[in-house]
Design a protein that fits this description.
Blueprint (H helix, E strand, L loop, with lengths): L1 H17 L8 H21 L1 H7 L12 H13 L1 H12 L5 H22 L5 H34 L4 E6 L2 E6 L8 E4 L8 E6 L2 E4 L1 H4 L5 E3 L4 E2 L4 E2 L4 E7 L5 H14 L3 H30 L4 H14 L3 H20 L2 E3 L2 H7 L4 E5 H5 L5 E7 L5 H12 L5 H12 L8 E6 L3 E6 L2 E6 L1 H6 L6 H12 L3 E7 L2 E9 L4 H12 L3 E5 L4 H11 L3 E3 L4 H13 L4 E5 L5 H6 L2 E5 L4 H6 L2 E3 L6 H35 L11 H24 L3
Parallel strand pairs: 11-18, 11-20, 18-19, 20-21, 21-22
Antiparallel strand pairs: 1-2, 1-3, 3-9, 4-7, 4-9, 5-6, 5-8, 10-22, 12-17, 13-14, 14-15, 15-16, 16-17
Bound molecules: adenosine-5'-diphosphate and magnesium ion.
Amino acid sequence: MKRSSANHNTHGASTTLSAGKHAGHNTAMFFRKFWVSLILTIPVVLYADVVEKIFKWSPASFPGSEYLPFVFGSIVFFYGGSVFLAGAGREIKGKLPGMMTLIGIAISAAYLWSVYAVFAGLEALFWELTTLITIMLLGHWLEMRAVSGAQGALQELSKLLPDTAEVIRSGKTESISLSALLEGDIVLVRPGTKIPADGEIIDGDSNVNESMITGESKPVSKKNGDRVIAGTINGDGALKIKVAAIGEKTFLAGVMRLVAEAQASKSQLQILSDKAALYLTIIAVIGGVVTLIAWLLAGAEVSFAVARLVAVLVVACPHALGLAVPLVASISTTKAAQNGFLVKQRLALEAARTVDMILFDKTGTLTRGEFGVIDIWTATGQSKDDVLVLAASLNALSEHPIAKAVVLKAKERGVSLKEPKKFEALKGRGVRGLVDDREIMVGGPALLEEINLKLPNDLAGQAQEAGEKGQTVIFVVKDRTLLGVLTLADIIRQESREAIKALEELGIRTSMITGDSEDVARWVSQELGIDKYFARVLPHQKSEKVKELQKRGLRVAMVGDGINDAPALTQADLGIAIGAGTNVAIESAGIILIRNDPRDIVKIVKLSRLTYTKMIQNLFWATGYNVVALPLAAGLLAFKGILLEPALAAVFMSVSTVVVALNAMLLRKQKL
Ligand code: ADP
Ligand code: MG
């Protein structure tokens, strides 16, 4: 199951890349056709009059030798040229004339004229025709090799999986094919072998190399109870793993799906270059015809004029242009996955390049979102446990990290919870519900403000003190009177500080946006060295804040993990979700941080900039040569004796394509 679906994805991605160009062709066929054409071309060139003109020498003639170029030329045209003719047919049927159409017209024109010339006793173009086809075949072969090298990265991902797994069923170990593996199976992973499925270690410890998935180069030490990912490589220990996810459900399958999706989604530059390729084709056909007619009107020989037509058509081929952007895009999405982030939308990665400001959510993003309850204070006549029971009973239904901490504390103290009714999450403020038919609310300062509840002086002072130490303070309210206060502390991610510093160095401003209190926000942003913070922001205000900044002309990225961050993630020019965050956040974002490491944002920006530079370079290489070569091919400098013969035009075109492919591949080597 897994393998076939995985391969299917890979295939889908590669067809989108080369659709309409090499559909149905394979590398080996091009190679064979190239050799046959080359061997036949040599005698054609020797018996052509160019050799005689230049070297004042010609091979011995024999009866019928004057027909040799015609016969061999015809074989090359039909055998070698057929791929181009078929391709042209496909393009025209698909109403998307492109490179194949141009080559098709060019070789057909040269061939038809030459056949006529043979019988009319005029100058034929056989040597030009055969060299052109041979070089085109070579160029295509080189290019297909380069392209498959560039696309390989995605295929590499599917190769990460082993073919078989050793499963332990009813006490016996047997080797089965991966597709026969079931969820809940226990598999044995021997030292040095690949882990076949996502799962949990139930026996053994080892170091696992996860670099192919997370980019983390050091092996990660794993023991009982730790999770492992399919496709990673086991170190020296033997592991028994309980399979949690197979096939489509594994993390790796998810990565491949996203990579394939992102490759299918077109970038702005892609759309632009597709259009440019179509226009170039149209210009080439018109330019070719104009060139032909102009030379004929100027009284040139027909064969000379046809040769100019052929050269113009060949030189104008938008071949390199068609590859310039998709190749780079394909490499950059795979590179992203290797560096700890998944690109869901191509446009998001593109936007990262020009971002002016990054807004960070606090809880769960800059901090780990792993709270611990520090203290409980009570208002008149309550016990700490009374307060805790109410807070935990309601929060048992909440997904918020604060809620988890409160429930954990209740468990630790061994108090039993009650069944709440009419539970409701007040996003960004807290929770509300009925316990024992009395209205209970648990939440932060925004909640108190909403219900107009003032803290008694002593508690207000204590709450402020806690806030100044970076502790989050929440209040438990029963029937609109305050019962007690809980203080909680979160852990700041150490990586956050480095991330902020590196982003500032790249010239990007950072701010924090949080639903938490002013005091906590100030403390955290001082700890992290963040420019600016917005505190006590309600969920809908988060996206409004983004809008407001955008109106001031800033390009804004938002980083978040929670349900309350989702609208802002969508609104931002670039939405980045923490991988461990809620599904809603992940759905709303364009890029996901697999490792939950804010430092990877720096890599996003760098990759975005690199990708853009590469694409622009490639567009330059792909089109630049046309500008120079087109007039030469048309014969504009013929009066100075400078002419671009069709075969040389083909060399130009092929070289530019190969340069584009190789340039794209250099991106792989770059460090982020
Ligand atoms: P952030 O924007 O930093 O991610 P949230 O918007 O998720 O924070 O939460 C903002 C504030 O709302 C919290 O600091 C807390 O005061 C309050 N809050 C939210 N959910 C809960 C809950 N389940 N229990 C108690 N307080 C909550
Ligand atoms: Mg959050």
